[in-house]
Amino acid sequence: MSKRPSAVRRDTVEAKAVRVEVRSQEPAEALPESNSLFPWLLLLFGASGCAALIYEIVWFQLLQLVIGSSAVSLGFLLAAYMGGLCIGSVAFARFVPARHNPLKIYAYLELGIAAFGIIALVGVPLIGKLYVATAFSGFIGMLWRGVIAAMCLLPPTLLMGGSYPAIARWLGQSPRQSSRLGLLYAANIAGAVIGSIAAGFYLLRVYDMAVTTFVAAGINVIVALAALLLARGSDHSATTAATDRAPIVRAPGAMLVYAAIAFSGLTALGAEVVWTRLLSLLLGPTVYTFSIILAIFLIGLFAGSSAGSFIARRVANPRVALALCQISLGLAIAWTAWTIAKVLPYWPVDPWLAVNPWFNFDLDIARCIRAILPATLLWGASFPLALAAAAAENEDPARLSGEVYAANTAGSIVGALAFSLFLIPSLGTQGSEKLLIWLAAAGAALALATMLGNRTLMTKLAGALTATVVLAWGLSSTVSGLPWQAIAYGRRIAPILRSVLVGGDTDSSPLFVGEGINSSVVITQRGDVRNFYVSGKAEASSTLIDMRLQRMMGHLPALIHASDPAPSSVLVVGFGAGVTAGSFVSWPSVSKITICELEPLIPRASDEFFGKENNHVLHNPRTRMVYDDARHFILTAPDKYDVITTDPIHPWVKGSSTLFSREYFEMVRSHLKPGGVAAQWLPLYESDEETVKTELATFFAVFPNATVWSNFLDGEGYDLVLIGAAEPPRVFVNDLQNRLQAPEFRAVAGSLAEINLRSAAELAATYAGRAQDLAPFLANAQVNADLNMRLQYIAGLGVNSVSAPAIYRDILSYRKFPEDVFSGTGPEIDVLREILNRRRRIF
């Protein structure tokens, strides 16, 4: 039975509303000029993206020095940065009239960004002083961190957010509007790729944050001048006038498109958080690994958005393409989950075979491309398709681009915060990946729902929604968790798993596996040995060499402590296996043990499996646990201590170099009581000579009277313990021996005897040198400072180094028996002199 003419016309109108035709007529006078200038706009907006990514890296590093690097602090930084982009993109069309030349507005925005970028170099430290002077604890303190992040990041990011709709308005209302907007987005991401690589691999590695900032500001200024020149040579009055007179219009179902692209942003940033966590385990959490992951992610977005812009011009209904894109995302997320869990851990190349880090970077890039590129292509394509799906005739392009960008960014904020702060700690990475598949299905359902107004498609849409749910359920059931060996052994996983597959290493079993808000933890048992791993790194074990180091980090600074009576208050940076902190439990004089730990999961696990070795320090009434970034705690806490020491924290881990900087050591020194002592761990393994020299030079710059002590294995150096104090150290060997033999120090003596240090002479024999004697060795060594963070870049290049024995021999070659450090009479001092001279002859 045929339809009546009125019904046919109604269906035709509804179908046109659903398709949101992109092929509308544009003002003839706007077309030639837009065509001629469009390549220049792509270039300019790409340069803007490059500068923006450089700023993001620099600003995050600067602000982490103020509010800390905990997951909560990083969440505030991300929310402030992306929140500014979101607000700026929405606000532009509402507060900037179309009668103003958009290119001039864009130029002024770029100049403002450059100004804020330079101001940040001076302003962030000043705001940091305000923050320290008014720091709060508890929930109010957390909110205050967010306020500080917003004060620093919102002004420039508001301007960044407005730059996209500004250029979009210049393009006007053309038949290729949505495609061109997508290409602009792709160009911006292409610039961001260049910025991430330039900052991560060159600018911050070779120079510092000041130089890097001036490079970004210079890019902004060049872009602004070029935009002003283009604005002077063009006339945009016809299009802007038309836009100024146009009423606010939106296509039917546009709000559902906004919701769909918001879900796309949510899954994109949520997946980035999850996959960065997992890939950093497999590749090693150096600053270069994070730069590679970010660059591959952005490359995928660039390629995908370029392809999506091409597709948006050619499909009859971009909403169908957007829905298919979201459905395909479920497949891509499942692919990545399978690749990370089932392929990459068994990658048939051992990264430890190559000392050259650039060879390993090549492998890391290949693995990241295989794992995450497919999904990033689809997220990139989603944005231009959403622009086309939401577009309406005679709509202000600034409003369209701003609202779509804002929706995508808002979803990204939710995804990043939800997964990093709540979902990974509660669901784990495996559960989070399953949830990502369901969220992608939800985005597909929203895209399909935009077509519900056409009743002829109802049956098809119902079937498509049902198929989407079934597909999401099937795909989520395929997601597997990462092998516990990968969480434990990290970048060394391939040869270990291959050994397991052929029947080797079968006696290692996991006692504890957990994923916390900041780190992943594994504790294993192999024979009588328990091993403690954090995020793919061996942090401690019950072996003699590791127990020796951890107890030296506690007992050595306490015994060298200059004042009498013995130390009463100590601060331990990092909990680890708890052995360093637990060493102070045996000291009768210590009345307060403060432990600062970033990951709340670690103390609970260590107490269960290393409780005997750490004297159950977690439950000792003298212990105060602080769950925060140690640098932030020292910066804001007014307390002073007799001893400040560190549990082993690897300097090549991204972010850890802030605990090895000159400014950090100055903070430590300012929080020591008179006669107080600071102890710092320095690994010789997984380090090259430049890294070790930088660490020594930085510590000596703050503690010129520092001494060096060694934890050695079979005569070779393994770790160093640096001891710093305001005054030159004086070790009275006889008094030290008498103290160890006193009844009240029986527990201390017993703890040292368990690590084969049975006398004061044997403990003093671990002396390896001092600052003044090592001055020739450290000639021209660079100092790690807050503004350059040099250490994390050079340490990341030396992870595969095998030069520890040679470095140790070089250090010992400068050692002299220090008559002004060690004093005493009788056999104790004679034994010590003989041991030190003998060890020097050996090397």
Overview of the structural elements:
With 843 residues, the chain is of the alpha/beta class. It folds into 3 domains: 220 residues, Growth Hormone, Chain: A (Up-down Bundle); 211 residues; 280 residues, Rossmann fold. The protein is 62% helix and 10% strand. The chain contains 28 helices and 14 strands. Strands 7-6-5-8-9-11-10-13 form an 8-stranded mixed beta sheet, sandwiched between helices. A 4-stranded antiparallel beta sheet has the order 1-2-3-4. It has a two-stranded parallel sheet with strand order 12-14. α4 runs antiparallel to α5, α9 runs parallel beside α11 and α12 crosses α13. The longest helix has 53 residues. It is elongated.
Which structural traits does this protein have?
843 residues; alpha/beta; Growth Hormone, Chain: A; 3 domains; eight-stranded mixed sheet; four-stranded antiparallel sheet; 62% helix
From the spread of the alpha carbons, the general shape counts as elongated
CATH class of the largest domain: Alpha Beta
Please state roughly what percent of the residues sit in beta strands, choosing from under 5%, 5-15%, 15-25%, 25-35%, 35-45% or over 45%.
5-15%
> Uncertain runs with pLDDT below 50, 5 residues or more?
1-32
Q: What's the architecture of the largest domain in CATH terms?
A: 3-Layer(aba) Sandwich
Largest sheet: 8 strands, mixed
* SS class: alpha/beta
The averaged pLDDT comes out at 88
Q: What fold name stands as the CATH topology of the largest domain?
A: Rossmann fold
Please give the number of β-strands: 14
Specify Rg, calculated over alpha carbons: 30 Å
Query: What is the H level of CATH, i.e. the homologous superfamily of the largest domain?
Result: Vaccinia Virus protein VP39
Spatial order of strands in the largest sheet: 7-6-5-8-9-11-10-13
Domain unit count? 3
Number of helices: 28
Helix content: 55-70%
Termini, distance in Å? 101 Å
